[in-house]
Amino acid sequence: MTGLMNNIIEKLTSIREGFATLDGQDRLVYLIDLGKKIDQIDEKNKTEENKIHACTSQTWINIVDKDHIVLTADSESAIVKGLLRVLQIGFNHEEKNNIIDFISEFDEPIKLFEWLNIGPTISSQRQNGFIGALLFIKKELTNE
Fold first, then answer.
1. What gap in Å lies between CA 32 and CA 114, rounded to an integer?
2. Catalytic residue, candidates 8, 22, 38, 55
3. For 106, which of 29, 46, 71, 111 could close a Cys bridge (C-beta 3.0–4.6 Å)?
4. Is residue 74 a contact partner of residue 81, using CB atoms and an 8 Å limit?
5. What is the C-alpha separation between 74 and 47, in angstroms, rounded?
6. CATH assignment of the domain containing 134
7. In this structure, how many other beta carbons lie within 10 angstroms of the beta carbon of residue 111?
8. pLDDT tens per residue across span 68-90
9. Would you call 55 a catalytic residue per the annotation?
């Protein structure tokens, strides 16, 4: 990974290192704590178009500015809120093409999950929600 994507990598490094030093339940606590700092989506933006259907919890993402990205999000699940906050930390205020390139660098979205060291502590349903959120963001940014 090179070039402008390095900004995203730098922003996610502390999260990645945090997960690497934690095990099991501590990872969940870390995620829940991250979720408490989520940039909350406005109620009016909790629409069908902004809903992440891959997630078993009610989850929404709104992209406020599509040039220098600002994501707002919410979920009924405290763990999913933490996963969404990780994406906000990495992607907010980055250029759209950097985010698309960063997501595309991982030939499968689950590999980003693994790169972050979040690991098997998170259920496959939550992993699917994270993957769904990544794919939603990429789709919105590429206008596919």
1. 18
2. 55
3. 111
4. yes
5. 12
6. 3.90.1010.10
7. 11
8. 899 999 999 999 999 999 999 99
9. yes
